[in-house]
Specification:
Blueprint (H helix, E strand, L loop, with lengths): L1 H19 L9 E4 L6 E3 L3 E6 L3 E7 L2 E6 L6 E5 L5 E5 L12 E11 L2 E8 L3 E6 H7 L4 E6 L7 E5 L5 E5 L2 E4 L4 E3 L2 E6 L2 E4 L12 H8 L1 E5 L5 E6 L4 E6 L4 E7 L11 H5 L8 E3 L3 E6 L4 H6 L6 E6 L4 E6 L4 E7 L4 E6 L4 E6 L9
Parallel strand pairs: 1-21, 2-25
Antiparallel strand pairs: 3-28, 4-5, 5-6, 6-7, 8-9, 9-10, 10-11, 12-13, 13-16, 14-15, 16-17, 18-19, 19-20, 20-21, 22-23, 23-24, 24-25, 26-27, 27-28
Length: 364
């Protein structure tokens, strides 16, 4: 009996020690930076002649300005980047290879796939259609090079093309038991012919008091570098910025030291009062551009058309510039050659341009 009692004491002591260990919600090395150290500049937009009914997302690659819309007659419209002249109306609503039935939009995934400007569109939550933009403009209809199976998860999930037939798959939160709010943290997995390998970012799950809010805690916006090898994932609720390197299989995590850390919120009201972070991302081979709300959930209900902030980073995680915009931009795109930032206003659905050349100095 004495032996059993001693074993019980040892086990209880071990469990107490384990339960007292601090949880590690982010397992990558986190760099703290003070974003306010970079001065913020106010910008005023100029209205472009792109007044597109039902526009939802915008993006730029090479000489193409791409707009996704809710117009069933043509859900993808392509313009010349310099003249803004329309080049093609693509992908009407339908079930054929060249159509889109239920396209999923976050930020437009525009990449140079096999050295060709390509738009990757998720359709019906089941397939990714690889649309060759150059050939599509010539043909006047979508030229779909490949169709592959998409990543589907209960809450969130997508695939980012990172070059050389490799993909970075984001598997969102999985609910082990929604009744008890028991979840498995999201994972990032590099997938190629040789196999799969995870790049660790999240460790212990940060469970909130409701399943929906636990899920929202980990949702973010992600895009690859157009030429591949790297990708960025910016969290929607918290001010964390993550750059994945699929060659070294590492992730660099940057946190705004003036904002709340991942371990702090405990309930729905905490999350609703946090100034929200990113809702749109644009990438070039040199830069990452992110929007920042800096408004809480409650504040957004009172003023849904509040102006937003924009941050510009390089792929090493250096913050280059910060801007305070004159309106609420639902989507952004960047013309790297002419150094013009474009924004889609969520209210009037017009597209505005911002010349940011005076504020950027990029060493090639």
């Amino acid at each position: 009996m004495k032996i059993i009692r001693n074993i019980g004491i040892v086990v209880a002591t071990f469990l107490l020690i384990v339960s007292c260990e601090p949880k590690q919600y982010i397992v990558s090395e986190v760099t703290e930076i003070d974003v306010s150290a970079v001065p913020e500049i106010e910008l005023q937009g100029i209205t472009t002649n792109l007044d597109i009914m039902g526009a939802t997302e915008i993006g730029i690659i090479d000489n193409y300005f791409v707009v996704a819309t809710t117009d069933p007659n043509g859900q993808i419209r392509v313009f010349d980047k310099n003249s803004l002249k329309e080049l093609a109306i693509l992908c009407p609503e339908g079930r054929s290879r060249t159509d889109l039935m239920h396209p999923y939009l976050q930020s437009l995934q525009l990449v140079n796939k096999n050295d060709l400007p390509t738009l990757l569109m998720v359709d019906n939550n089941s397939v990714i259609k690889s649309i060759n933009l150059k050939e599509s403009v010539i043909a006047g209809s979508a030229v779909v090079d490949t169709i592959i199976k998409a990543i589907c998860q209960p809450v969130d999930g997508y695939s980012l093309y990172v070059g050389n037939n490799r993909w970075l798959d984001y598997h969102g939160i999985y609910f082990d038991d929604p009744r008890d709010n028991i979840c498995t943290a999201p994972t990032f997995i590099v997938k190629e012919k040789q196999g799969k390998q995870e790049i660790p970012l999240f460790g212990d799950i940060k469970n909130m008091e409701a399943v929906a809010w636990t899920a929202s805690y980990y949702i973010g916006v992600a895009l690859p570098r157009p030429s591949g090898r790297k990708a960025v994932f910016v969290m929607y609720v918290l001010d964390y910025f993550n750059i994945f390197d699929t060659d070294s299989m590492t992730v660099k995590t940057i946190h705004n030291s003036n904002s709340i850390t991942i371990d702090k919120p405990t309930g729905i009201n905490d999350v609703r009062n946090i100034p929200l972070n990113c809702t749109s991302v644009a990438t070039t081979d040199d830069l990452i551009i992110t929007t920042v709300w800096n408004y809480s959930y409650y504040q957004s209900l009172e003023n849904p058309k509040f102006p937003i902030h924009v941050r510009i980073w390089d792929w090493d995680g250096k913050l280059i510039a910060r801007f305070y915009m004159d309106r609420h931009l639902a989507s952004i795109a960047y013309d790297e050659e002419n150094m013009i930032l474009y924004g889609l206003d969520s209210g009037d659905e017009k597209i505005y341009s911002y010349d940011i050349s005076p504020y950027l100095s990029i060493d090639k």
